[in-house]
Specification:
about 45% strand; about 140 residues; 11 strands; six-stranded antiparallel beta sheet
Length: about 140
């Protein structure tokens, strides 16, 4: 995955560096999946929850995430198996990207392209082994 911080998160970092705001760390990081890439400003096409059993996945911090270095890249990765709900109806489509949010209906912090896009039809699901869902933040 490649990665980018969202404009919202970049502004938090700038305010922190200026000493004008100290953001409170989130107690969960929420993962959303996309069929069309979001940008730093948001947008993209999140998988539809209408009749598909799709739901954003909440992972507690810090226990659900680890900081790792691969080559020269530092990244945030899942520490446990993440299994998403089984798709129903027409399925989820071709899932190409993931994004991190600070709450279920919160602010996007970062987005990444998945290493391998995956077509999720009815009866199928997304699953990530420990370390397989990661976000490299540039």
């Amino acid at each position: 995955m490649s990665g980018a911080m969202s404009d919202y998160f970049e502004n938090l970092v700038i305010d922190w560096l200026r000493g004008t705001q100290m953001p409170t760390p989130p107690t969960v990081l929420v993962v959303a999946f996309y069929t069309n890439a979001p940008s730093d400003a948001g947008g993209g096409t999140e998988v539809s929850a209408s009749g598909t059993a799709y739901a954003r996945q909440s992972i507690a911090t810090p226990v659900g995430w680890t900081k790792s270095v691969v080559g020269t890249a530092t990244r945030l990765a899942n520490t446990a198996l993440l299994t998403c709900p089984t798709a129903t109806g027409a399925g989820w489509g071709l899932v190409t990207h993931a994004a991190l949010f600070d709450a279920l209906a919160g602010n996007m912090l970062a987005e990444n392209a998945l290493d391998v896009a995956k077509q999720i039809d009815a009866g199928e699901w997304l699953e990530f082994q420990p370390g397989a869902l990661y976000f490299g933040i540039d």
